[in-house]
């Protein structure tokens, strides 16, 4: 099993140590350990069912752990969840909203739950409605909003009490490309002075906004590293071949472990330690199959490739 641990950062506002959760005979979490620091976005990455949401729910006090420790800003989050809760902003995977409340009404109600004074509630609500782009929708009922705007309301609710640690569980699921860009920019702005954990299974989102990454699978941490160091740890490069015609993987069997890329069967990706020779072999196939070449590019392995290698080696 390949395990990579390179995450050595300064002050850690969140420290998770040997966290374990058992359901019957199944270990949902198996001694999970990682940390996060202010001003950086940590991508918490794993396939569905890997243990991401379970970890987030334990950190935020929604679930109990069977063993382990969670420290948030120096406080024991497992022993004192009510004391630690106001320091955390949490957007769960299934965004729980009161659909019959108006946007502004819901945010002001949420601020009251944290004991904010009336003037502070109004100030925070005005600020977050502006920052999250909810101004045109603030007088609508939440049930009338699109998926993208509901996500914005959930994010504003998670930030209403100005928490120092923000945890977002699959915040971009179901959003269209324009909504993705808006939410991504908002997350980047929020993370400037907070500790932010971004739980997802979408590699492109992690590469776009995260500085650090933790990879979990089957309840075990397989990698914890700055994203740049994780990428640099691979000595292999990738060749990406795109043609006008559809290709078949069997044509490339003698060259290496080839797979289709994001453009389907018109694009293949091939990891290699000898780009020069591999490029020649690919061009031979292009000639033999009489393909019209669009491009043949070379680059380092992306996060999706590394993720697949790390999780498949478990």
Please give a handful of descriptors for the protein shown.
314 residues, alpha/beta, Rossmann fold, Alpha-Beta Plaits, 7-stranded mixed beta sheet, 4-stranded antiparallel beta sheet, 10 helices, 32% helix, ATP-binding, Motility-assoc_ABC_GldA, ATP hydrolysis activity, ABC_transporter-like_ATP-bd, nucleotide-binding
Summarize the structure.
The protein is of the alpha/beta class.
Major sheet characteristics: 7 strands, mixed
| SS-derived structural category | alpha/beta
Give the beta-strand count.
Answer: 15
What is the second-level CATH architecture of the largest domain? 3-Layer(aba) Sandwich
Unreliable stretches, pLDDT < 50, 5 or more residues?
A: none
Series of H and E elements: EEEEHEEHEHHHEHEHEEHEEEHEH
Helix proportion range? 25-40%
What's the rounded overall pLDDT mean?
89
């Amino acid at each position: 099993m390949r395990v990579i641990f390179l995450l050595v950062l300064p002050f850690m506002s969140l420290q998770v140590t040997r966290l374990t959760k058992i359901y019957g005979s199944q270990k949902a979490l198996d001694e999970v350990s990682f940390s996060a620091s202010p001003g950086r976005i940590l991508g918490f990455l794993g396939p569905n069912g890997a243990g991401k949401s379970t970890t987030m729910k334990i950190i935020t006090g929604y679930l109990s752990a069977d063993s382990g420790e969670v420290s948030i800003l120096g406080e024991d989050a497992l022993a004192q969840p009510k004391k630690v809760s106001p320091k955390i902003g949490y957007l769960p995977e299934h965004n729980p909203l009161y659909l019959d409340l108006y946007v502004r009404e819901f945010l002001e109600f949420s601020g009251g739950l944290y004991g904010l004074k009336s003037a502070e509630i109004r100030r925070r609500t005005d600020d977050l409605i502006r920052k999250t782009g909810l101004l045109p929708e603030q007088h609508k009922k939440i049930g009338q909003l699109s998926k993208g705007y509901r996500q914005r309301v959930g994010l504003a609710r998670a930030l209403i009490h100005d928490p120092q640690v923000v945890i977002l569980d699959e915040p971009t699921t179901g959003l269209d490309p324009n909504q993705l860009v808006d939410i991504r920019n908002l997350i980047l702005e929020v993370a400037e002075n907070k500790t932010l954990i971004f739980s997802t299974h979408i590699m492109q989102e992690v590469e776009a906004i995260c500085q650090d990454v933790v990879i979990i699978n089957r309840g075990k941490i397989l990698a914890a590293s700055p994203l740049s160091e994780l990428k640099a740890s691979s000595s292999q490069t990738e060749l990406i071949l795109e043609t006008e015609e559809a290709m078949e993987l069997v044509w490339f069997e003698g060259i290496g472990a080839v797979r289709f890329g994001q453009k389907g069967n018109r694009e293949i990706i091939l990891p290699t330690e000898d780009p020069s020779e591999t490029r020649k072999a690919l061009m031979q196939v292009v000639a033999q199959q009489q393909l019209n070449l669009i491009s043949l590019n070379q680059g380092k392995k992306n996060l999706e490739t590394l993720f697949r290698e790390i999780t498949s080696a478990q």
